Automatic annotation (TrEMBL):
The keyword Metal-binding does not apply. It is a peripheral membrane protein. This is Amino acid ABC transporter ATP-binding protein. Residues 12-256 form the ABC transporter domain. InterPro entries: AAA+_ATPase, ABC_ATPase_HisP-typ, ABC_transporter-like_ATP-bd, ABC_transporter-like_CS, MetN_ABC_transporter-like, P-loop_NTPase. It comes from Rhodococcus pseudokoreensis. It is found in: Cell membrane.
Amino acid sequence: MTTDIQQAEFAVEVRGVHKSFGALDVLQGVDLLVRKGEVTVILGPSGSGKSTLLRTLNHLEKVDRGTIRIDGDLIGYRRKGNKLHELRERDILRQRSRIGFVFQNFNLFPHLTVLENVVEAPVSAQGRDRAEVEAEAIALLERVGVGDKAHEYPRQLSGGQQQRVAIARALALRPAVILFDEPTSALDPELVGEVLAVIKQLARDGATLVIVTHEVGFAREVADTAVFMDGGVVVEQGPPAQVIDDPQHDRTKAFLSRVL
Ligand code: ADP
Ligand code: MG
């Protein structure tokens, strides 16, 4: 899948992406560049297209226009001469398996144990050796602080523990980037901190992360780049000291005054 790239400079490269649902233009020309090892936090009001953007990154939504590259790999298409051909489902699944996705509602498989949840995709989508993946999964569960839960089922865990399992599951893919869609929004307030702490540690360890969140304090702390979206476009982006503490656009100022 790395035929038409040299060394990808960007983990995520979004250019001119448009996406509509019927008459609703949800993404109206989004550009976004994320360098390897950097953390990008996306802020913006509800309905501004943040989740849709994340979903286009791993082809859960197909774009109408524009291109997306993850680690240089053109998502959803392969180039043949000057023409783009849509990938088959099997190749899309393979591409998607290099992108971690952590959802608001954890989305663990309820009928699988914690360990099985983490082991499933590397074995089935990446064809890796089960014993090797299991050893790695146990280490990852320990890293996010739920090593003692490996043989329990998701419903036996708190929301914060389930979300940490979801993060271990994403890491097990050895992904080029991990996408987080409001990872703490479904949690009781007292459980938010433990999940943010794990994400902060990943950031310190040099993972490439794209995080949609309303936790502005966390964004300021962890982000290399803050992106403010509204109405399906990127209104403003830059270091958090700029976008969060000294916003230039009225829409950014209005949003921040509501959430800060
Ligand atoms: P955000 O995550 O910023 O709150 P979303 O990307 O979820 O925004 O949604 C942006 C807009 O697109 C909303 O108006 C939402 O109702 C609409 N939308 C999202 N997904 C779909 C879909 N599958 N079908 C129709 N409309 C959708
Ligand atoms: Mg959303």
